[in-house]
Design a protein that fits this description.
InterPro entries: MoCF_Sase_C, MOCOS_middle, Pyrv_Knase-like_insert_dom_sf. This is MOSC domain-containing protein. GO terms for molecular function: catalytic activity; molybdenum ion binding; pyridoxal phosphate binding. By secondary structure, the protein is mostly beta strands. The protein folds into two domains: about 160 residues, M1 Pyruvate Kinase, Domain 3 (Beta Barrel); about 90 residues, no CATH class. The chain has three helices and 19 strands. The longest helix has 11 residues.
Length: about 260
C-alpha cells in the first residue's frame, strides 16, 4: 500500500494542483487553502454556487500563489494590510484582503462582486471540537486539514457509472493505492512515510462532486452523487473518503509507504 498521488488547493474551491510531495505545517499541507473567495457579505464562495470557478487555476511558486483567470490573465495573490472577518460554514475567522486587481478580474469573470482573502498565521480557526478534542487548527478547508481517498474505491464506483469520473471530482489531498475498495471505512490511524495520521470523520459528499473540473459544468443527472447515494449513504451523509489530522510535522511524497496502525475489526 502506498501513496499514488498528492494534491494541494492553494485557493479554496479553485482547481487543485497535483504535486510530487508536500511539507506539513501547523495548518496541514503547507500552503493548502490559505486563500479563499468571499462575496460582498464576506461569506465564502465555492463551486457549489459557482461551478465555473473550476476553470480558474492556481499556481504555487517560491514567490507565492498566482491565479490564472480565463479571458482575464494571470494575477499574483498578495495579502494586503486591510483585515476582515470572514465566514466559513458555521465559523468566523480573521483574514487579510487580497490584491484588488486579482479580485476585480475574478469578479469580471464570474459576473458578481468577489474578493480573495488570506488566512495569516495569526488567525486561528479550530478543527471541529466534536471530532477532535485537541485544540487543532485548520485553514479554509471545509473542516479538516486532510482528505484521504482510495483509488480502488473510485474504480469500483466507476463500474456503476455510465461515464467514469476522475479522482479530481472528490478533491483529495492524499490518494492511496494497493488496498481493496472501501477499506478506508475502517481506518482509524495510519502512518504515511514517517508521519502519523488520525482518521477523524468520513467525508460527506455534496453537489460539488457533480461539477466537471475540466468544463466547470454541473452534471445534469447529478452524477456521481446520485449513484453514490444508492449504496454509500450513512448517518454521516453520502460518503467517499476520510477526513484526517496529522500527528507531527514532516513531509510526504508520492510513492511513500502507507501502514494502517489501527482499524475497526
Amino acid at each position: 500500500m502506498k501513496v499514488q498521488s498528492l494534491y494541494l488547493y492553494p485557493v479554496k474551491s479553485l482547481a487543485g494542483v497535483e504535486v510530487p510531495g508536500f511539507e506539513l505545517d501547523d495548518f496541514g499541507p503547507k500552503g493548502d487553502r490559505r486563500w479563499m473567495i468571499v462575496d460582498d457579505q464576506n461569506r465564502f464562495v465555492t463551486q457549489r454556487q459557482m461551478p465555473r470557478l473550476a476553470l480558474v487555476s492556481a499556481v504555487m511558486s517560491d514567490d507565492g500563489v498566482e491565479v490564472q483567470i480565463p479571458d482575464q490573465g494571470r494575477f499574483p495573490l498578495v495579502p494586503q494590510e486591510e483585515q476582515v472577518r470572514v465566514v466559513v460554514w458555521r465559523d468566523t475567522a480573521d483574514a487579510l484582503m487580497g490584491d484588488p486587481a486579482a479580485s476585480a478580474a475574478l469578479s469580471e469573470f464570474c459576473g458578481v462582486p468577489l474578493r480573495f482573502v488570506y488566512m495569516p498565521d495569526s488567525s486561528f480557526r479550530r478543527v471541529d471540537p466534536e471530532r477532535v478534542a485537541d485544540n487543532r487548527r485548520v485553514g479554509f478547508a471545509d473542516g479538516f486539514p486532510f482528505l484521504l481517498t482510495n483509488q480502488a474505491s473510485l474504480d469500483e464506483l466507476n463500474t456503476r457509472l455510465t461515464q467514469p469520473v476522475s479522482m479530481t471530482r472528490f478533491r483529495p489531498n492524499i490518494v492511496i493505492q494497493g488496498v481493496p475498495a472501501w477499506a478506508e471505512d475502517n481506518w482509524r490511524s495510519l502512518v504515511i512515510g514517517t508521519v502519523g495520521f488520525q482518521v477523524v470523520k468520513p467525508c460527506s459528499r455534496c453537489v460539488l462532486t457533480t461539477v466537471d473540473p475540466e468544463t466547470g459544468i454541473k452534471d445534469a443527472g447529478t452524477e456521481p452523487l446520485k449513484t453514490l447515494s444508492t449504496y454509500r449513504k450513512t448517518p454521516d451523509g453520502v460518503i467517499f473518503g476520510q477526513n484526517a489530522i496529522h500527528l507531527s510535522s514532516g513531509r510526504i511524497s508520492v510513492g511513500d509507504s502507507v501502514a494502517i496502525s489501527q482499524q475497526e475489526s
